[in-house]
Amino acid sequence: xxxxxxxxxxxxxxxxxxxxxxxxxxxxxxxxxxxxxxxxxxxxxxxxxxxxxxxxxxxxxxxxxxxxxxxxxxxxxxxxxxxxxxxxxxxxxxxxxxxxxxxxxxxxxxxxxxxxxxxxxxxxxxxxxxxxxxxxxxxxxxxxxxxxxxxxxxxxxxxxxxxxxxxxxxxxxxxxxxxxxxxxxxxxxxxxxxxxxxxxxxxxxxxxxxxxxxxxxxxxxxxxxxxxxxxxxxx
Amino acid sequence: xxxxxxxxxxxxxxxxxxxxxxxxxxxxxxxxxxxxxxxxxxxxxxxxxxxxxxxxxxxxxxxxxxxxxxxxxxxxxxxxxxxxxxxxxxxxxxxxxxxxxxxxxxxxxxxxxxxxxxxxxxxxxxxxxxxxxxxxxxxxxxxxxxxxxxxxxxxxxxxxxxxxxxxxxxxxxxxxxxxxxxxxxxxxxxxxxxxxxxxxxxxxxxxxxxxxxxxxxxxxxxxxxxxxxxxxxxx
Lengths: 235, 235
Description:
The structure is a homodimer.
Chain A: E1 3-13, E2 23-29, E3 54-56, H1 58-68, E4 75-79, H2 89-97, E5 101-106, E6 120-123, H3 136-145, E7 151-158, H4 161-173, E8 179-183, H5 196-209, E9 219-220, H6 224-229
Parallel strand pairs in A: 2-4, 4-5, 5-6, 6-7, 7-8, 8-9
Antiparallel strand pairs in A: 1-2, 1-3
């Protein structure tokens, strides 16, 4: 059994959400059931890149993670694309045996029984600016599958006020889920430098529109890796 | 009974450490037993500013927090100066009754029984670049006082490799404490703009010197408020 892997890199710091700043090795799965308008990982999504995805056994994936971390257990973030398309249960089983912790990032469109074994499940439903509509029934199935996971949180990317209204409705639907918002990044070309002033201005805008207007529930965070490395890949 | 308060402001987002991104009202106490070489809050430390510190009763402090948050319970961060010099127990008691949560930031030089009632205690022992030496006996007393607090974490500011060695030793001494490192900020003049490129370069350096060299324990975070607002006060 093999999995399609777009890239494995690290250790670096997690740039987003509840584990922000945490030393992490990233395992990025190839393939996605979504095609968000502003996707920042098209190389793991668009089937035009399919030739660059490597079929790897769970043991080969963990061997690479082990090599990168020098054998020190750390947090492994499984992302994509949508990694829930494939079966990561064996990877998680091998890794946890050795003390590695696993976080999974998925939009919540496909539920898997193995979510129950995760240390952290990050559900990031996609707001209207993505061009997708959320199927909340499927999202709820993901939540149910993760009932016994270490922690489950919700993370939403915000480009505009319509996205913000969506985030509020998502929170009303799942008030028990810790909520993290981050400004969307329209500059996703890995060849172009990121404008730091504009990146921080977007964060300021998001804080003004939430905390500044009395919505005190979500935690507001940047994409740290964009601030640090721009859109460079592999960091 | 009154407390010396340098400023109360917010709601804004917590810029540092374990609660980074969390909507927060800050209560900054006046007065400090330390005088760090790179202090970014001299207006709450140096007795030259003593005239600007307002004596407030616990009820008056919570009335101001309530006014700022529109009566919505949120996280209140008590900082300074060293807020452990004074008795914040009554403030915490009044606030928690109404659903407010309390975090305290202190260097760990003065222990108080009321640490036990905190939701979050952030102990930030000062590295050699501060010009101070840590009295670990006093630090341990702070830890003991906070045994029943919600969570206790350690946060250390890093300016150079000597500070990094100190952080490693601090972690070896208290391996059970979640550890957060942040790059020091040498640009603390509120009148001068912060250089974003240099600020992110310092974060990159710290990641290179920790994660990049196989030290995978600490979480590495920026001072978000410096990235967003520079050294402006009241945000």
